[in-house]
Amino acid sequence: MSDPDYVYVIYIRATPQRVWDALTDGHSTANFWYGRTNESTWRTGDTVIFRRPDGGIDFSGEVFEAEPPRRLSHGFLHPAPGPMHDEGDTRVTYDIVEVEAGVVRLTMTHSGFKAGSIIRPGVERGWPVILSGLKSLLETGEALPDRLDVGHVVECDPA
Amino acid sequence: MDKPDLVYIAFIATDAKTLWRLLTSEGDSPLWFFGCRIEIGEAAGGPYRVRSPDGALAVDGAILAIEPPHRLRILWRMPGNPLGEGRQNEIEYRIEPATDGVVKLSVLEFHHRPVPEAWQESGREGWSKILSALKTLCETGRPLPLLMGDRP
Q1: Residue ranges making up the domain that contains B105
Q2: Which residues of B touch A (CB under 8 A)?
Q3: From CA A124, how far away is CA A9, in angstroms rounded?
Q4: CA B142, B98, A83, A120 torsion: positive or negative?
C-alpha cells in the first residue's frame, strides 16, 4: 500500500518555454519556492539540488526525465538524517501543455509516497503556495510575498 | 465539522471583498466560469444556478450558507451531467487571509459517498481552470483565455 499521488493543475498565461525556464533557472525558483535556489544541468541522469536561503540543502534528487519545454521529472529526497530521509525518494513530475495560444496547463504530480507518509502532508500544504507564486510571477512579474499563512490543511476523507 | 472529499486551493494577490464580489457577481461570472453565467440569490435557501453559454442549465442548486466575504456553501445539482446525475453534492468556497494583500481561496467538495475517479478527474480540470481564471482576473485585471464550452 502507498499513499496517493498529489496532483496540482494550474493554468498560466505564458508559453511553455517561460514555464520551463522559471522552473529550471537556478535563481528564478527563489521567487516562489520559499526562497529555494536550485543547482542542476537539468540533463537526464544528473543531480538536482534545492538549497534553502541559509545554504543548506532542502532536498535533492536525480533528473529522471528532461524534455524541454514539455516534461520534467526528478527525485525528491530530504538529505538530513531523520524520518523524512528514511521515507526515501519521492518523485516530482511536471507536464507542460499549451492548451491554446499563450495559455499553458501545468500539471505537477508528486508521487511515490509510502503508506502513512509524513512527507505528503507538508507537500500538500506547499505546492499550492509554490505554484500560485509561479503563476503570479509569470503573469504579473511579481511573486507572492514570502511567509504566507497556509492555514490548517483541510483534511479529506480518504478516497 | 464535516470533512470534504476533495479540496482545491489557490493563493491570490487580492483582498477578500474583491474576490467575493467576483465569485458572486452574475455579470462577471462568464469571465472566470468558461463563459457560464451564475444566478445567485441573496440568502440561504435562495437559488444558485449556472447556465452554460448556450443558456442550458448546467447547475441547478441552492445557497446553503452565505457569509460575505468568507464562505459560500452551495447545493450543487448537475441535471444534465451523467457524472452528476442523482448526486447531492455540496460545494463550499472559502476565502481566508494569507498575509497582507493575499488570500487563500479553497473550493471544498462534499459528496457524502464515494467519488468515482472520473468525477475527481473532471473536478481537477474544472476547478483548476476556475481558480486559475479567478487568480488571473484578480491579479492582472484581464480574463484568462480558456477553452470555452467545457463544464466543471
Answers
A1: 6-150
A2: 3-7, 9-13, 96-102, 104, 106, 108, 114-115, 120, 124-125, 128-129, 131-133, 135-136, 139-140, 144-147
A3: 13
A4: negative
Considering the domain boundaries, does residue B102 fall inside one?
A: yes
When scoring B128, B142, B148 by the number of chain A Cβ atoms within 10 A, the one with the most, hence best to mutate, is B128
Query: What's the structural domain count of chain B?
Result: 1
Longest Cα–Cα distance in chain A: 46
Which residues have a Cβ under 8 Å from the Cβ of B123 and sit 6 or more positions away? B6, B8, B109, B152
Cell of A51: 538549497
Q: Tell me, what CATH number does B14's domain have? A: 3.30.530.20
Is residue A69 reached through a cis peptide bond, with omega within 30 degrees of 0 on the bond before it? yes
Give pLDDT, residue B149.
Answer: 40
Is B1 inside any structural domain?
A: no
Of the listed ranges A43-57, A69-83, A126-140, B83-97, the one predicted with least confidence: B83-97
Report yes or no on B31 lying in a domain. Answer: yes
Question: Given CA atoms B57, B64, B75, A149 in this order, what sign does their dihedral have?
Answer: positive
pTM of the model: 0.92
Distances (CA, A) of B131 to A71, B23, B144: 23, 10, 11
Beta bridge partners, B40, equal B48
Residue of B nearest to A11 (CA): B132
Q: B33 in a domain, yes or no?
A: yes
Q: What are phi and psi of B66, to 5 degrees?
A: -140, 115
